[in-house]
Amino acid sequence: MSGDTRSTALEFRSSADDAWYSVRLITEEDGEVLRVKYVDFPHDIFDERFRAADFGDWKATEGLAERFRSVSVQLQDEDCPKVTQGKAFCLSRSIEPNDLKFYDAVVDELKQPQEE
């Protein structure tokens, strides 16, 4: 693996399933290729590569940039009272055993637990 490796705390929205994953960024081919390497994935076949030459205008560049974000902060039990209608957060969903995916969600409605 050649090029510069950046170990920043980033998440990337996959083009395969629109889920968010932790990634590392690697430049290859003298900076002409940006490789998005998925952290903890067993094989490089899942990595996504973007060539600088494929970005003909600013809109295409912005589209790629919008697929990156800082790592999501996990909601803890003590944070539940702070959740409000309209709040955006990242949720996890297990599709298959050992296959946890993360998606963005917005709280549509709050239901208070019934007191016993």
What does this entry look like structurally?
- The chain is mainly beta.
- It has two domains: 5-70, SH3 type barrels, CATH 2.30.30; 77-106, no CATH class.
- The chain contains one helix and seven strands.
- It has one helix at residues 58-65, and strands at residues 5-13, 20-28, 33-38, 48-51, 68-70, 88-96, 99-106.
- The strands form two sheets. Strands 4-3-2-1-5 form a five-stranded antiparallel beta sheet, with no helix packed on it. It has a two-stranded antiparallel ribbon with strand order 6-7.
- Strand 1 (5-13) and strand 2 (20-28) form a beta hairpin.
- The longest helix has 8 residues, at 58-65.
- The chain starts with a strand and ends in a 10-residue tail after the last strand.
- The model has no long low-confidence stretch (mean pLDDT 84).
How would a textbook summarize the main sheet? 5 strands, antiparallel
Task: Identify the strand order in the major beta sheet.
Answer: 4-3-2-1-5
Q: How many discrete structural domains?
A: 2
Alpha-beta classification: mainly beta
Topology as a string of helices (H) and strands (E)? EEEEHEEE
- As for the CATH topology of the largest domain, it is SH3 type barrels
What proportion of the residues form beta strands (DSSP E)?
Answer: 35-45%
Task: Report helical residue fraction.
Answer: under 10%
Supply Rg.
18 Å
Query: What is the terminal separation in angstroms?
Result: 60 Å
CATH architecture of the largest domain: Roll
Mean pLDDT: 84
Overall spatial form: elongated
Q: What's the total count of β strands?
A: 7
Protein name: SAWADEE domain-containing protein
InterPro entries: SAWADEE_dom
GO molecular function: chromatin binding
Organism: Cinnamomum micranthum f. kanehirae
